[in-house]
Amino acid sequence: MAGESRQQSDPVVRPPVWETYGPADLSAVPVFSGGFINFGYWKGVDLEGPLTEADRIRSEQDLYRHVLDAAGPHKGQVMEVGCGLGVGCALALEEYRPARITGVDIHPQQLRRARDVNAPLLEARPDRLRFALGAAESLPFGDGEFDCLYSVEAAQHFPDLFAFAREAARVLRPGGRVAVASFFTVDGTPAQADRLAGLLDSYANGLDIARPVSQLADALTGSGLVDVRTRSIGPQVWPGWDRWLSRLWEPGTWPRNFLAAWEERVLDYYVVTATRP
Ligand SMILES: C[S@@+](CC[C@H](N)C(=O)[O-])C[C@H]1O[C@@H](n2cnc3c(N)ncnc32)[C@H](O)[C@@H]1O
User: Fold this and answer.
1) Residue 84 in contact with residue 114, Cβ under 8 Å?
2) Are 129 and 122 in contact (CB under 8 A)?
3) For 193, how many CA atoms within 13 A lie in the half-sphere containing its CB?
4) Cα(20)–Cα(75) distance, integer angstroms
5) Most buried of 38, 40, 95, 173, CB within 10 angstroms?
6) Mean pLDDT, 10 residues at a time, over the chain (277 residues)?
7) What is the topology classification, in CATH, of domain 15-275?
C-alpha cells in the first residue's frame, strides 16, 4: 500500500480500485493528460487530423464543462464525487465560480495527489476548495448541505448505485441538482456483462461494473429525485477516445474494444441529471 496508512474508519476500497488508483496511478498512464482521468468529450475536435496533447487535455476539460453545464447553476456548495486528482474541481471553481467545491474520493492516495496538485489554490482559498475522503455510497456530510453534486467517470466503479443515489438525495438541498457522467450498458441489450468481460479487461477484472443506465435513473427516482433525465453522449466520446488511443494501442488490444462495445450497442456513455424537489 505504498506507505499509506489506513484508518479503521476509512471507506473500504475494492481491490481493483485500490490498485488502479493507488500503486498503478492511472493518472500517470500516457493516454490520460493534465491530471485528468477520463475518456474526454471530443466535440469540436477534428478527428481526421493529427491529435495533439492540447486536444487531449481540452477533451477532458470539455467533459467536465459538459457535465457542469448539465448540473448548473452552481452558486453555492458544490460536491464532486470521485474527484481523482481534483483538477476538475479547480476547473469548476475557476470557470463556474460556486461558493465552494468539495472534492470527494474513496482513495487516500488520490486525495494526497489532489492536495499536492492543488496546493497553491488550497493555500490561497481554503474557504473555496477542500478535499475529503469518502465513498459515494456513504458521503461524510450532513443532510441538505449541498446545492449541486456532480460526478465524472467514476460511477462505473461504484458498487451500489442505489446507495449512491440515496446519499446524493440526502446531501442535496431542496432544488439541488445532480449530474453524473459515466459509461453504462445499454438498456435492453442481453448478456452485457459477459460480453463486456470478454471485450474489456477492466470489466473482466472487476474495476468497472456492468449495469444498465436505467439502474442509475431508477435509483435516483427511487430516492425521491425528480426530473430524472438520461442522455447519451457516446458520439462525442467514443470515436475521439479511440482515435487518441490509436497513438499507443494497436487494433485488437483490449482498450480499443471500448469503441467496438459502443458500436455493438452494448456499452454507451451517458449523462444522467436529476433535481431534489
Ligand atoms: C476514472 S477516475 C476519474 C477522476 C476524475 N473524475 C477525472 O475525470 O479526472 C475515477 C475516480 O473515482 C474514484 N472512486 C472509485 N470508486 C469510488 C467510490 N465508491 N466512491 C468515491 N470515489 C470512488 C477513484 O478513486 C478515482 O479517483
Assistant:
1) yes
2) yes
3) 8
4) 34
5) 40
6) 57 94 89 95 94 96 98 90 98 96 97 97 96 97 98 98 98 97 92 93 97 97 98 98 95 95 97 98
7) Rossmann fold (3.40.50)
Q: At what angle do helices 53-71 and 87-96 cross, to 10 degrees?
A: 60
Helix extents (H) in 177-251: 192-199, 201-204, 213-222, 234-245
- 89: part of which helix (H) or strand (E)? helix 87-96
Spatial separation of the C-alpha atoms in residues 117 and 72, rounded to whole Å: 26
3-state class (DSSP) for residue 259: helix
Among 101, 133, 153, 271, which is best to mutate for testing ligand 1, by the most ligand atoms less than 8 A from CB?
A: 153
Provide DSSP, 67-87: HHHHH---SSEEEEES-TTSH
Kindly give the number of the ligand 1 atom that is closest to the alpha carbon of 87.
9
pTM, rounded to two decimals:
0.96
Domain range annotation of the chain: 15-275
